Structure formats: C-alpha cells, structure tokens
Amino acid sequence: MYLLEYGGEDDAFAAVESRHAATSVTRVAPGLAVANALVPERVRGLAYTRAASDLVGRTDASVASARALLEAASIDREGTVAVRATDVHGSSGVSTTHAERELGSVLVDRGFAVDLEDPDHALRAVFSEGRLESDANTNADDGRDDLIESVASGESGERVSVCALGWLAAESVRDFGSRAPTDKPFFQPGSMDPLLARAVANIAGAEPGRTILDPMCGTGGVLVEAGLVGADVVGTDAQAKMVAGARTNLAHFLDREDPSPTGVPRGSWHVARGDGTRLPLRDGAIDAVVFDAPYGRQSKIETHRLADLVSGALTESRRVADRAVVVADRSWANEARDAGWTLEAAFERRVHRSLTRYVLVLS
Ligand SMILES: C[S@@+](CC[C@H](N)C(=O)[O-])C[C@H]1O[C@@H](n2cnc3c(N)ncnc32)[C@H](O)[C@@H]1O
C-alpha cells in the first residue's frame, strides 16, 4: 500500500488527479489518501499530490502511537535514514520536531545511521485531524462511486485522527512557479494557472503516447503542461494572435532535447487557427480533449453566442475523443449531456470572490 500526501485545500479534486498515477485511491484524512499501486514517474508530474510513500502503517495522530507503530514495524531497508514529520494544516497540534526526534530514536535503536541532508531512505510521518468530507456525487450521471470523488456537498463527514508512516517513494516536481502566466514569453489575461492546467491535463490522461487537444487553446497553458508530462498536444484557437502566442509558448517549453523536469521526453505540438466547433480532425483522432471555455466577459468570443460555442465545442470534442475535461465559469453540465457525454465528476473551485471555476470530467 502507498500513502499519498495532497498539497492543497481541495482533497476531492486532488484524489481524482492522483488516480492518474495510482490505483484504488481512498482518502483517509484531510490531506491524506492510500492507494494500492502507483507509477512513480507519474507521481512526479502531479500538481495536487506532493509525495507518495510506501505505507508502513496507520494509527491515531499522536507521537506515542506513531512511535509504537514504528517499533512494531518490520523494516526491510539498508543505509542511512531521516524522519520528516508534517502536521496537515496544523490540524493535529502535534510537535513535528518532537515526532522526528522520537521516531528517529526508534530507527537509531534498530541500528540505522541518520543522515538529515541526504538520507538513503526518508520516513514520512504525517499527522492529520479533521472531518473527512463524504464523496457526494449528486452531479454525476452514473453513480460510479469509485470514480466520483466530489461535488461540494456541504455535509460534514466523519471526524478522523490519523498518523500515517511511510518510506518516501516519489515526490512531485514543484516547478510550477517558473511557469506563471505572466512569466511566459506570451501572456494574456485569463490564462490558466499552471497548477490547475497540469491537474486537468493529468485528469484527461496526459502521458507519453497519448494525444491531447485543446480546441480553444489561448496562450497554450494546458498544452504546455500536457506536453511536459510527455503527451503530444494539438491546439486550435479562433484568434490569430492566440495561435501565434501559443506557438511561442509551446516552442519555449517543449522544443528542447533534454527530458522535462518530470523525467519524460517532452511531447510534440501542433497549433492551428480554427473554430472549436468545426475541428479539422478525423473522428476519434484524439485521446482526450481539455478546454477552458471563454468566460464571456474575459475572452473574445469569435462568431458565436457563448452557449452555442460551448455546445458546439462539446459536440465536436465528443466526435474526436472519448474523454474530456472542461473548465468554465459555469457548469455546462446539461450542454455536455446533450452533446452525448456522461458526467464522471464535477467540481467547483473558488478562485476568488467573483470567480468560481467549474471542472467537468466527461467520458
Ligand atoms: C478562456 S480562453 C483560454 C485560455 C487558455 N486556457 C490559456 O491558458 O491561455 C478561451 C479561448 O477561446 C478562444 N475562442 C473563442 N471562440 C473560439 C472558437 N469559436 N474556436 C476556437 N477558439 C475560440 C479565444 O480566442 C480564447 O483564446
């Protein structure tokens, strides 16, 4: 079993993204999930998962229990060790320095040498307390609870107190700050944050050998993130300025021989001027579509009413692919169903007071 540490506030969304890298993901406490198996290279490319570890075991969120758990565990490892403790959102009130000292002494008693700078094995000790939200799925169509993590339910779930111990197996590469929209060669207001862009690319299934399309690619934010985890990417946009800008950004981040920071070869890219409701692509030519629908007030909408544009793009997406992830400032769930999609999951992500982003996962 593995332990997944999520990074942000929205565990349900993080859980759906982490299923790109792990199987049988189950949330066990705020910020924490367990999984049956994982692909370390994919963990490196996750946005909302920070780390994955080989699970040693779970107990309640106290240092004494964590100590007892480690004393009882079998440890099939050689080399130097370090303990790194965290208290998720400061929820358990456990002293992480005390925890590191106590667990470190258990390891020393069992004959391990400590190397805090560069250990051969890092033991993660994660403490978390709080309510585990229920996985409501009222917006989803088929009731497949294994797939559907969230629609904000407003209900408060069971209260849990957890300490999980695990040997660090893989960490995600935290280089998103270097791709802030304003730091890219081409910038326009309304560009998607690279963290969300990476997450939606992962949920769409971006990986080497797969092709991801953004039919309204704007500055190419989603395509850059999908390309950096190895997918081949295709973009269209109605505006010539955006096409030129997306090309500049994609060339900057993907036209390089060295592997991407996540360790995979960078994907190939193609961007053309085109109408997202009439794609120049064969049926089924694409593995998955991701798009960030215009927000009416922000992006310039070429030739269509917003609802017609989104409906048309959803229908065309269904023709060329059998999976899609749609980001927008409203739900568009009915339009997605009308276009022949099944709603796998839906999320509302509050960006700031006047902007909520909706994410629909469609298959
Ligand atoms: C919200 S922006 C996408 C932003 C993008 N995710 C980014 O990070 O830059 C929506 C884009 O849709 C494009 N667009 C509007 N109508 C279109 C249409 N009919 N076909 C294709 N693109 C269209 C706009 O030019 C705009 O670039």
Q: Approximately how much beta-strand content do the residues carry?
A: 25-35%
Described by the principal axes of the CA atoms, the overall outline is elongated
Largest sheet: 7 strands, mixed
- Number of domain units: 2
CATH architecture of the largest domain: 3-Layer(aba) Sandwich
| Annotated CATH homologous superfamily of the largest domain | Vaccinia Virus protein VP39
Give the bound compounds: S-adenosylmethionine
- SSE run: EHEEEEHEHEHEEHEHEHEEHEHEE
Structural class: alpha/beta
Helix run count: 9
**Remind me, CATH topology of the largest domain?**
Rossmann fold
CATH class label of the largest domain: Alpha Beta
Unreliable runs: 142-155
Distance between the termini: 28 Å
Please describe what this structure looks like:
The protein is an alpha/beta fold. It has helices at residues 11-18, 40-44, 63-72, 96-109, 194-204, 221-228, 240-254, 306-320, 333-338; strands spanning 2-6, 22-23, 26-29, 32-35, 37-38, 49-59, 81-87, 121-132, 158-171, 211-214, 232-237, 269-273, 288-292, 324-328, 343-352, 355-362. The chain has two domains: 2-171, VC0802-like (2-Layer Sandwich), CATH 3.30.2130; 176-362, Rossmann fold (3-Layer(aba) Sandwich), CATH 3.40.50.150. The chain contains nine helices and 16 strands. The strands form three sheets. The chain has a seven-stranded mixed β-sheet with strand order 3-4-1-6-9-8-7. Strand 3 and strand 4 (32-35) form a beta hairpin. The two termini are 28 Å apart. The model is unreliable at 142-155 (pLDDT under 50). Residues 190-192, 215-216, 218-219, 221-222, 236-239, 242, 275-277, 292, 294-295, 299-302, 304, 309 line the site of S-adenosylmethionine (SAM). Residues 190-192, 215-216, 218-219, 221-222, 236-239, 242, 275-277, 292, 294-295, 299-302, 304, 309 line the site of S-adenosylmethionine. It comes from Natronosalvus rutilus. One of its GO terms (cellular component) is cytoplasm.
